[in-house]
Amino acid sequence: MKYILVTGGVISGIGKGVIASSFGTILKSCGISVTSIKIDPYINIDAGTFSPYEHGEVYVLDDGGEVDLDLGNYERFLDIVLHKDNNITTGKIYEHVIKKERKGDYLGKTVQVVPHITDAIQEWVEKVSKQPVNRDGKLPEVCIIELGGTIGDIEGMPFVEAFRQFQFRVKKENFCCAHVSLVPSPKSTGEPKTKPTQSSVRELRGLGLSPDLIICRSEKPIGNNIKDKISNFCHVAPDQVITIHDLSSIYRVPLLMQEQGIVQYLNERLQLSVRMPLPIDFMNTWGNLAERIDHLRKPVNIALVGKYTKLEDAYASVIKSLQHASIKVGYKLKLTLIDAAYLESESKETDPVAYHQAWQNLCSSDGVIVPGGFGQRGITGKIEACKWCREHNKPLLGICLGLQTIVIEYARNVLHLKDANSTEIDPDTKNPVVIDMPEHNQGNMGGTMRLGQRATRFVTTVSTLRQLYGNPEIIQERHRHRYEVNPKYVEVLEASGLKFVGHDEENVRMEIVELEGHEYYIATQFHPEYLSRPLKPSPPFLGLILASTGKLKSYLERGCRLTPTQFSDNDSDEGSSTEFYLQNNLSEDLLKATVI
User: Fold this and answer.
1) Strand-by-strand arrangement of the 420-422 sheet
2) Residue 121 pLDDT > 70, yes or no?
3) Which residues are within 8 A (CB) of 493 and not within 5 positions of it... i.e. 6 or more apart?
4) pLDDT reported for residue 54
5) Burial (Cβ within 10 Å: 0-12, 13-18, ≥19) of residue 318
6) What topology does CATH give the domain 295-559?
7) Confidence at residue 345, expressed as pLDDT on a 0 to 100 scale
8) Residue 57 to residues 68, 73, 395: CA-CA distances in angstroms?
9) Listed residue (400, 397, 421) closest to 409, CA to CA
10) CB-CB contact of 579 with 328 (8 Å)
11) Given CB 3.0 to 4.6 Å as the disulfide criterion, which of 144, 402, 544, 561 pairs with 397?
């Protein structure tokens, strides 16, 4: 097993996740099987109890693991299926060691950070790195490990020490350290400054890890003179300094890394079996796809009505899924985030400007999405958005809580159950159309929801979403919820036109709802965004974009196929159709290697 450790310096949020994913993408394009591990030094057991404002979205895996959003990047980039143990936290490590101590596994010794915590980290990494993550069950050859935070953080010290020891445990030819650092360009001077990188590398060396690669992040391209300076002061060869400036698309990051000889270096440093020289068309598909995205012109305006709109990372997978679907149809996504609270009538009195702006954004959109969430704030605004889309035939996709708000709105305004509500919002409501699931509401907040991949069975053939999925009887999607539609109200809701076309395998829980007579008014209890890929967008999101661009009807009539004439940027240039473009430029093997 070969290991690539990715560390970060100077600031957090520098792009280590994209860099780590790009390493994997490049190696996978070389035919090497890759797995990934994300280390988060916080004491939480997992990301499940985080506020989205704290750490971005909570990403859910097939096995129900609630993990850091970077694992979503890994799955999208590499088209792999990770496990909850691929996300390591300080809390998990300490819990593991304490349980061993309670069982007497340490034979009465004093349990310490060194060697017990550091040994546990190394053993965890070695064990997880050997778990298959490809759908074909092939064992990984290279494990890419991203160490969260920045070098010097006190909470990350045990992990740095563990990898200082680990490099000798697995031998030099099997371990490579890549350090991602910021090279700022202050406006006052206008030139890149290398001191922060020098200081960061010096600190890393002082902790016992010498970087084999230094990845320099900057706003603008860095010249060779700056690379040479970093090489000289940081004790690495010039070809070991990789520069990554801000790009038009993250699709271009692997391309830029490859242009700077990363394959040649890793092949020699880790003694890989990549045949050199590389083919002339190596990773051309990435370039083609990046060019395609950069040249999308016709916009599709989507309004996202949510609770956590101040931080886009709170809806990272949802936004990626909308982008995937837009690319597929040949449109450039123009996304507007609307704080649901500003759609409520109370906001008209407290902040009339925000109220009118929110409604203007909603009404001028081509389509609307109401994503998942928790808590009471913004619920009324989401219900109002659902009502407006229903009454004005506006395409709407609801996810998780979005499905529940659709049901509440319909019960109130169509069935005239004025006090209809969710027991999450009003435990004493006389018409609880949405109720909690007792087995998933046990008092503890972490890891107690209905989580992970579960089956949904279509109960009717008259379903837009079933057609978008390719007319299967059963689909598999990932879940994360603690509340569900009350089965007692299903019959009366369906009788009035709100059809529950998908149930769980036990035929107890409502999974998919569609409004009869509406072009696209659909909601899912599961989270389809977790399985979306750019070359295989999630069907519910694809349906929303198609409906928002007026192309859903013709798409379904043609057996869910895109055509060069109907789905081009300018409706006349055959070569600009996404479907035509991808089918004629991407081979099957490279398609698998270029999923982001």
Assistant:
1) 420-422, 431-436, 483-485
2) yes
3) 407, 410, 411, 415, 433, 500
4) 80
5) buried
6) Rossmann fold (3.40.50)
7) 87
8) 8, 12, 25
9) 421
10) yes
11) 544
H/E stretch holding 580 reads: helix 578-585
The token pair at 392 is 């004005």
How far is C-alpha 248 from the chain's CA centre?
19
Catalytic residue numbers, as ranges: 400, 527, 529
Decide the pairing of beta strands 396-399 and 450-458: unpaired
Neighbours of 591 (CB within 10 A): 18
**Which residue is listed with tokens 């801000």?**
246
pLDDT above 80: residue 446? no
- Asked if CATH classification 3.40.50.300 holds for the domain at 2-282, the reply, yes or no, is yes
Q: How much of the chain, in percent, has pLDDT values that exceed 70?
A: 93
Of 94, 38, 47, 53, nearest in space to 446 by CA: 47
Confidence of residue 592 (pLDDT cuts 50, 70, 90): very low
Per-residue confidence at 444, pLDDT binned at 50, 70, 90? low
Amino acid sitting at position 297: R
Query: What are the start-end ranges of the E strands in 350-507?
Result: 367-370, 396-399, 420-422, 431-436, 450-458, 474-481, 483-485, 498-504
Q: Contact 454/476 with Cβ under 8 angstroms?
A: yes
Contacts of 502 (CB under 8 A, 6+ apart): 456, 457, 458, 459, 463, 465, 466, 475, 510, 511, 512, 524
**Which of 209-223, 278-292, 294-308, 403-417 is the least confident region?**
278-292
Domain boundaries, the chain: 2-282, 295-559
Q: Mutual orientation of helices 252-259 and 16-29 as an angle, nearest 10°? A: 70
Contact 66, 447 (CB under 8 A): yes
Give phi and psi for 143, each to the nearest 5.
-115, 125
Show the tokens assigned to 330: 């040949």
- 256 pLDDT higher than 50: yes
The model's confidence at residue 564, banded by pLDDT at 50, 70 and 90, is low
The structure tokens 């922060």 sit at 196
3-state helix, strand, coil in the chain (%, to 5): 40, 20, 40
Selected residue with higher pLDDT from 221 and 562: 221
Backbone phi, then psi, for 192, in 5-degree steps?
-65, 140
Tokens of 559: 């057996």
Is a pLDDT exceeding 70 seen at residue 591? no
H-type helices in 141-269, by residue range? 157-169, 195-206, 224-234, 252-259, 262-269
- Please check whether residue 389 is in contact with residue 417, taking contact to mean a CB–CB distance below 8 angstroms: no
**3-state SS string over 182-206?**
ECCCCCCCCCCCCHHHHHHHHHHHH
